[in-house]
From TrEMBL, chain A:
Residues 1-234, 250-493 form the ABC transporter domain. It comes from Lentzea flava. SUPFAM superfamilies: P-loop containing nucleoside triphosphate hydrolases. This is Sugar ABC transporter ATP-binding protein. The keyword GTP-binding does not apply. InterPro entries: AAA+_ATPase, ABC_carbohydrate_import_ATPase, ABC_transporter-like_ATP-bd, ABC_transporter-like_CS, P-loop_NTPase. Keywords: ATP-binding, Nucleotide-binding, Repeat, Transport. Pfam families: ABC_tran. GO terms for molecular function: ATP binding. It comes from the Bacteria.
UniProtKB/TrEMBL annotation, chain B:
The chain crosses the membrane at residues 43-61, 68-87, 93-117, 124-147, 159-180, 211-231, 243-263, 294-312. It is found in: Cell membrane. InterPro entries: ABC_transp_permease (IPR001851). Keywords: Cell membrane, Membrane, Transmembrane, Transmembrane helix. Coiled coil: none annotated. It is a multi-pass membrane protein. It comes from Lentzea flava. This is Sugar ABC transporter permease.
UniProtKB/TrEMBL annotation, chain C:
It is found in: Cell membrane. This is ABC transporter permease. Its main location: membrane. It comes from Lentzea flava. The keyword Membrane applies.
């Protein structure tokens, strides 16, 4: 790609960016949130038409007018947000557009078989005939990856494919990426996990604010340099966080207590105490029931057993509203579907929860709104810092920050964060972790869910381990990653661990 | 924002100019018995009911809904009021009748809201029930007869003038009120949120059901008032034809005004323009003497032209061609 | 329990519910009225609604893709007009049929292209299409034109004897063939699955590299074609062409599709549901004419009430069943 | 319930389910106007009076619903079927079925366009073209000099609209001074009539006569004329068709100048015909309803007895 420029109304997303991708390499595209990575990818695949510049494929100039054309030319892409059709089956999502046929019609048995094979390649075992929307977002992400590798392609583009995957899934993915690379496929990879980038990539290109910073061999660029190239200044903030994460055991009053809370088909009844000022981490594999647990606490789903006690009095959870009223906030992992209201502005999204709690007739005054917006735009470094921008137009990471800010605005007593650092760049991630620590210090209880175990271990005062939709253990904050991993993956029979 | 409304305004102006060309006296205004009289006034007066219904419809559509029952509700309001008034010339009777009618309409709105928000039935089919049955109810009230009344107070609603037609004043007042309430309170934002992403709104603690319920009640009350205007304009309630197909006009007005049927962001100003465009179109047909059998083709051509003018893509395609030619 | 047995039926529930309801109503009608429980009454349900079945099948495509087509009723009228006027002018029957189908499909194509290329909401475009088609009828003739062509009359009055003395017309056969074809296209072809994908999430479908443009235009062509075909069936049914035929029929078609459990937002639904929806509407009609004592206004109220009972019970069944499924899994 | 299939040759009492009471299936078009409601009521009342068991259905203005209703009457084996075909075409198939089932058919309101006159026994009703002619006649006789007429048409395509226009034009052709300067549909409704008239008043410099295809549109036009500061009946003459009560009142008050009657009360005649037809007696192929015209004076006299 040569001299690519692209402007959206009000934003110059890309300015004169050059980018090269060779066969047989894994090329990491690096940059902060909003640097223009996804936009560059979408220009490559024909979603956007560049204002200037050209795209060359194997030496020939190409101009795709739709992603379909790019696909036909051998470019297979996983876009950042899960871009699949949730109403179709898993098999269809993987193979639609290149389905096996028989007598002119789609051959469904063959299709399901193919899909199951592809899924098995990345270690997923789900029914290909099930409907996609019945699966959690992480599984959907795996399906998207399956779609991309289901065809023979020359170029494989992966825009933050790992943001909600856990270590096992990531390892699987990398294994396949290596195989493909060795077969000569050119792979473009975007991730905010530096470990992953260093593990898999051969070369990297760094973007900052829509401009090219440079292209380097991974082996020649160390982390510090990479980070300073990405953020454009020396890092210091980052180190501060590494230290900030000292753990302490909290012995304050119990804020929220779950007694035998459970929901059939979602999570087995569990007990849980969360104290004010405490950070409780939830650890478990994909599908272990972390999200379900969190949704029960928030009343997003109705529990069919047990009860929830807040401040010593039982709380009858009729839905999110009563949870919010009791000071509980829940930041969903599915920011597109359950989190943000994409067609509203940053400002409206920020105050939505607060406003909803006050009721429509008592609007948050313009002044308060502006000061809140101002505060969080800077505190979380949301870009563009234009409160009237539609959330839909923000980069993935910035959307995540807006969602987080919405709940911070309500000043909750218990903040449930389900994958809050998904798709967030390294600087922002550090900020958020620091924020959690600060909040806890100020007395807010935090329930922290993350696929990144390291992160959980680092900031949690106590870790609750889930497996197969059962709570199997509680560890205190001093535990090491290995200890947790052992519990998570360990014995196949939960009873043994529990007893 | 301004840009978005520029094209509908241009379309409206073009339509008005067409009238001026064919009928030079179209813009002429004179004072007749102490009120304004002229072609433009007619457009405003006759467009008032559609505008009013379209305002209610805008909010319903913003929540991803649709209300097909407004026409029937209008007919019910007219029927109830006129039957109540009967032969009485009293202002009091007229007021009481209108009050009863509007309370009834609010109840009908509650019913729609119940089906949509309470039972979770798809809006189009939920309101289809009242669209069908409602007209039956209106005819039940009038026993299928056209109820003629002779009541000056009632006549004011649809045919009265305070310099301008009372009906347009009412509609504009409602428009202003809605604009004010939705902008000055958080209602507008919450309505949009529910329309764009109901699930996310629920998880943010928005009372989506109450909001949906509210917009259907409001739409029904608007429809009720519109029904009063329509029947008061001719001093008669015709259960069968009052408000017939007005739901289509209203939806069209909303959509021409730039609000998407998929819910979410809405524009009240757009709706105002949309309603005016539709009414001007109808009036144009009458004034420029389009033959009855060509009327529909003419309407189709105008509607599609208006939409093409508004569509950025169509304009881009057109200007591209111009550039290519020159 | 495997996911297959719990999940797939959940999606079929609305359709199942509609069918079950249909059977129940029919049973109720049979108990209440003499002569209701005859095979011919069922056959009449199909005979009298053949055109609506075809319309609903076409409409299902459009609604599944997330659009709407308000022009269908008028296109039916236009088709009857073209048929009648063409035959009166002495055109041979095959030519008339081809002309009608071409006109319908072309109108659909035009609307689809405008909707897609210029990004204008389907509601407006098809509403304009509705005005246009009906306007064209009146341009051809304001009066109704009767069809005197011998072949046409023969086909119209010909009946097919089924076992048990029940007779149906060729219209029914054609309508059922259309339903079968729609089933095949929607569920066995790439185009059909893309229709579902576009209805589910157009942006995603585009990013998945699916031919969304072709699909979006395609559904309107199909709907236009079906409307024209329905118009031909209607011509056979009425043996006349008239500009005021099929007024408001688009609403019947949409209602049938939605009653059949198709989501108006797109992406979820089945043609068989639409067929059941048509039969439900037809049964309501039949019940009312068997009742035979309702005044005009009570007719409307009862239609509304029956419609309500249908959708409310359907809703209840779906909810109850979902809960059971959730518990069972 | 009795006549199980065998009910065959020669039994003069028809094929009804019970011996003496006649069952009549009546497929009404709808209830789109006061006129139609009066029509329905007359039929229902007279059926009761004549001891005829009436099965009534309302087609909600749709011809296909009327056809369905007729088909269901055939299914229910009624003794006689009557209906008002709003359109003259499109009845052959279903009437053929009725004929095959040996059920006699009576048309009210309007004949059908079929070469096969054996499909129905008789038809009872008004002649819309004739109504138009009567209106035209009156105009020709009552105006002198150049006259500008505006016409408020019924629903585009509807038979009464077409025929009333046709009959009217036929007659005024005799006097070239009379010109129809504008003609637009007001959909048979008052608000339609008022809106169209408002527009005409602005676009036409001189209007002498309004010809409305029904009373309701005429009444709407009166409102518009008054609002324009003119006097209906004097400054602008008004001719309408139907003669419903409201119209007659306006005529008596001098706001309308002439009304052509279109009588909806044909229940009695229909029942008599039905009885004869079922008995197998001969009936005339065409029975015209008694209809008149009203001037202002006649209206004053007739108004007190007006039922609808
Ligand atoms: N459709 C759009 N309309 C307007 N602005 C947009 C649009 N899409 C992206 N942008 C802007 O372009 C810039 C680059 O966004 P992009 O999504 O490419 O960032 P990114 O590098 O992928 O970030 P992240 O790591 O958060 O995903 C951002 O400022 C974003 O707000
Ligand atoms: N790798 C996998 N293979 C098959 N099914 C999986 C996999 N991962 C998750 N699932 C499914 O995920 C569902 C439970 O998801 P849940 O949201 O409870 O997970 P979670 O613990 O919150 O994980 P995460 O939030 O990381 O997705 C179950 O239906 C389970 O079958
Ligand atoms: Mg991105
Ligand atoms: Mg989760």
């Amino acid at each position: 790609m040569r001299g690519i420029s692209l402007a959206f109304p009000g934003v110059k997303a890309l300015q004169d960016v050059d980018f090269r991708l060779f066969p047989g390499e894994v090329h990491a595209l690096m940059g902060e949130n909003g640097a223009g990575k996804s936009t560059l990818i979408k220009t490559l695949t024909g979603v956007h038409t560049p204002d200037s510049g050209s795209v060359l494929l194997a030496g020939e100039s190409v101009a795709f007018s739709s992603p379909g054309q790019a696909q036909q030319a051998g470019i297979s892409t996983v876009y950042q947000e899960v871009n699949l059709c949730a109403n179709l089956t898993v098999a269809e999502n993987i193979l639609l557009g290149r389905e096996p046929r028989r007598f002119g019609g789609i051959d469904f048995p063959a299709m399901r078989k193919r899909a199951a094979e592809v899924l098995a390649r990345i270690g997923v075992h789900i029914d290909p005939a099930s409907v996609l929307e019945t699966h959690p977002i992480a599984v959907q992400q795996l399906v998207a990856i399956a779609r991309a590798i289901a065809v023979d392609c020359r170029v494989l583009v992966l825009d933050e494919p790992t943001s909600s995957l856990d270590a096992g899934e990531v390892a699987e993915l990398f294994r396949i990426m290596r195989v493909l690379r060795d077969e000569g496929v050119a792979i473009l990879f975007v991730s905010h996990f530096l470990d992953q980038v260093y593990e898999i990539s051969d070369r990297m290109t760094v973007l900052r604010n829509g401009t090219l910073v440079g292209e380097h061999l991974t082996s020649e660029l160390d982390r510090r340099d990479l980070i300073s190239k990405m953020i454009g200044r020396e890092l210091g903030a980052l180190e501060a966080i590494e230290d900030a994460s000292e753990r302490h055991s909290v012995s304050g009053p119990v804020l929220v207590r779950a007694e035998g809370l459970g929901r059939r088909g979602a999570i087995a009844p569990f007990d849980l105490d969360i104290r004010a000022g405490e950070v409780v981490g939830l650890a478990g594999l994909l599908g272990s029931g972390r999200t379900e647990l969190a949704r029960l606490l928030f009343g997003a789903d109705r529990a069919d057993s047990g009860r929830l006690i807040v401040d010593g009095t039982p709380l009858h959870l009729r839905g999110p509203r009563s949870a919010i009223a009791a000071g509980i906030a829940f930041c969903s992992e599915d920011r597109k579907g359950e989190g943000l209201v994409a067609d509203l502005s940053i400002r409206d999204n920020l105050v939505l929860a607060m406003q909803a709690a006050r009721g429509w007739s008592r609007p948050v005054s313009r002044k308060v709104k502006d000061s809140l917006v101002e505060k969080y735009l800077t505190a979380l470094d949301i870009r563009p810092a234009n409160p009237d921008a539609l959330v839909r137009t923000l980069s993935g990471g910035n959307q995540q920050k807006v969602l987080l800010a919405r709940w911070l605005v309500t000043e909750p007593r218990l903040l449930i964060l389900d994958e809050p650092t998904r798709g967030i760049d390294i600087g922002a991630k550090a900020q958020i972790q620091q924020l959690v620590t600060t909040l806890a210090a100020e007395g807010t209880a935090v329930l922290f869910i993350s696929a990144e175990l390291e992160e959980v271990v680092r900031i949690a005062d106590r870790i609750v381990v889930l497996r197969d939709r059962h709570k199997i253990a509680e560890l205190d904050g001093g535990s090491t990653i290995d200890e947790v991993v052992e519990l998570i993956a360990g014995d196949p029979v939960p009873e043994e661990v529990a007893s | 924002m301004k840009n978005r409304l520029l094209w509908p305004i241009l379309a409206l102006v073009a339509l008005l100019l067409l009238n001026l060309v064919v009928t030079p006296s179209f813009f002429a205004l004179r004072i007749q018995d102490g009120h304004l009289y002229g072609g433009l006034v007619d457009v405003l007066k006759n467009g008032a009911p559609t505008l009013l219904i379209a305002i209610g419809m805008t909010l319903v559509i913003a929540t991803r809904g649709i209300d097909l029952s407004v026409g029937a509700v209008a007919a019910i309001a007219a029927a109830v009021t006129c039957v109540h008034i009967g032969t009485s010339p009293d202002a009091g009777t007229a007021l009481a009748g209108m009050a009863i009618a509007l309370v009834l309409c609010a109840a009908l709105g509650l019913w729609n809201g119940f089906l949509v928000a309470g039972l979770g039935i798809q809006p189009i089919i939920a309101t289809l029930v009242l669209m069908t049955a409602g007209r039956g109810i209106a005819m039940l009230v009038t026993e299928g007869q056209i109820i003629t009344v002779n009541n000056d107070a009632y006549r004011q609603v649809g045919a009265g003038f305070v310099v301008l037609p009372v009906s347009i004043l009412i509609s504009l007042a409602v428009l202003g009120l809605v604009a004010l309430t939705t902008r000055k309170t958080a209602l507008g934002m919450l309505i949009e949120a529910v329309g764009v992403n109901p699930e996310a709104s629920r998880l943010a603690g928005v009372r989506s059901r109450t909001i949906i319920w509210t917009v259907y009640v409001f739409a029904a009350v608007c429809a009720g008032i519109a029904g009063l205007m329509i029947s008061s304009n001719v001093s008669a309630a015709d259960a069968n034809s009052n408000g017939l197909w007005i739901e289509m006009d209203a939806i069209l007005a909303v959509v021409i005004g730039g609000t998407s049927l998929a819910g979410g962001r809405y524009s009240l100003t757009g709706t105002l323009l949309g309603s005016l465009i539709i009414q001007t179109l109808t009036t144009t047909v009458y004034t420029i003497g389009v033959a009855a059998e060509v009327t529909l083709v003419f309407k189709a051509v105008v509607v599609i032209t208006v939409c093409l003018i508004q569509s950025p893509k169509a304009r881009a395609a057109l200007s591209f061609r111009k550039v290519a030619v020159s | 329990m495997t996911a297959l047995t719990t999940r797939l039926p959940a999606r079929f529930l609305p359709v199942l519910a509609t069918v079950v309801l249909f059977v129940i109503t029919f049973g109720a009608g049979s108990l209440r009225y003499d002569g209701f429980a005859s095979g011919q009454v069922i056959a009449n349900l199909f005979i009298d609604n053949a055109f609506l079945i075809v319309l609903a099948a076409g409409m299902t495509f459009v609604i599944l893709s997330g659009g709407i087509d308000l022009s269908v009723g008028s296109v039916v009228a236009l088709s009857t007009m073209v048929t009648a006027a063409g035959l009166r002018a002495g055109w041979p029957v095959p030519l008339v049929i081809i002309a009608v189908l071409l006109i319908g499909s072309t109108l659909g194509l035009l609307m689809g292209v405008v909707i897609h290329k210029f990004d204008i909401q389907p509601f407006i475009v098809t509403l304009a299409g509705m005005f246009l088609a009906r306007g064209l009828c009146f341009l051809i003739s304001v009066e109704s034109v009767s069809i005197k062509d011998a072949t046409f009359r023969e086909v119209a009055t010909a009946v097919i004897e089924l076992p048990g003395g029940v007779t149906i017309t060729y219209n029914v056969v054609i309508a059922l063939l259309v339903v079968l074809a729609a089933l095949y296209v929607l569920h066995r072809t790439r185009f059909g699955r893309t229709v579902y994908a576009v209805g589910g999430n157009e942006q995603s479908a585009l990013l998945m590299g699916l031919p969304t443009a072709r699909t979006k235009v395609g559904v309107y062509v199909i709907s236009g074609f079906c409307s024209a075909l329905a118009g031909l069936l209607f011509s056979l049914y009425m043996l006349s062409g008239y500009g005021l035929h099929a007024v408001g029929m688009e609403l019947d078609a949409i209602a049938a599709v939605v009653i059949g459990g198709t989501l108006l937002a797109g992406g979820l639904g089945y043609v068989l549901g639409s067929l059941a929806g048509v039969l439900v509407l037809g049964t309501i009609q039949t019940l009312i004419s068997f009742q035979g004592t309702l005044s005009s206004w009570w007719t409307k109220i009862v239609i509304g009430a029956l419609l309500l009972v249908f959708i409310a019970v359907q809703r209840g069944m779906i909810r109850g069943r979902r809960r059971q499924a959730a518990v069972a899994s | 319930a009795c006549g199980s299939g065998s009910g065959g040759a020669g039994s003069g009492t028809g094929n009804g389910s019970s011996g003496d009471t006649i069952t009549m299936g009546f497929a009404q078009v709808g209830a789109e106007s006061g006129w139609r409601t009066a029509n329905t009521k007359s039929i229902q009342d007279e059926a009761k009076a004549a001891g005829i068991d009436l099965k009534f259905s309302d087609a909600q203005q749709k011809q296909e619903n009327q056809i369905k209703a007729i088909r269901s009457y055939i299914q229910q084996k009624v003794d006689v079927i009557a209906f008002s075909p709003v359109v003259e075409t499109g009845w052959d198939t279903v009437l053929l079925e009725a004929k095959r089932a040996n059920i006699p058919v009576i048309l009210t309101d309007r004949a059908i366009d079929s070469d096969d006159t054996s499909l129905y026994k008789t038809f009872l009703g008004s002649d819309f073209v004739e109504e138009g002619r009567k209106a035209g006649d009156w105009l020709v006789q009552n105006v002198n000099g150049p006259t500008n007429v505006v016409e408020l048409q019924g629903t585009t395509g509807a038979a009464p609209a077409i025929d009333r226009k046709k009959g009217f034009e036929e007659k005024i052709a005799a006097k070239p001074d009379i010109k129809v300067v504008a003609s637009q549909t007001g959909d048979f409704t008052r608000s339609g009539g008022k809106q169209v008239m408002e527009a005409f008043l602005k676009s036409q410099p001189k209007i002498d006569v309004v010809y409305a295809h029904n009373d309701d549109m005429g009444l709407g036009a009166i409102e518009a004329i008054k609002a324009a500061g003119k006097v209906p009946g004097k400054d602008i003459k008004i001719i309408t068709v139907d003669a419903v009560k409201d119209g007659m009142t306006a005529l008596a008050n001098g706001e309308i100048n002439f009304i052509v009657e279109c009588n909806p009360l044909l229940g009695k005649q229909l029942m008599e015909l039905a009885k004869k037809v079922v008995k197998g007696e001969e009936v005339p192929a065409r029975v015209v309803t008694v209809e008149g015209t009203f001037t202002q004076e006649q209206a004053k006299a007739a108004l007190p007895q007006r039922q609808y």
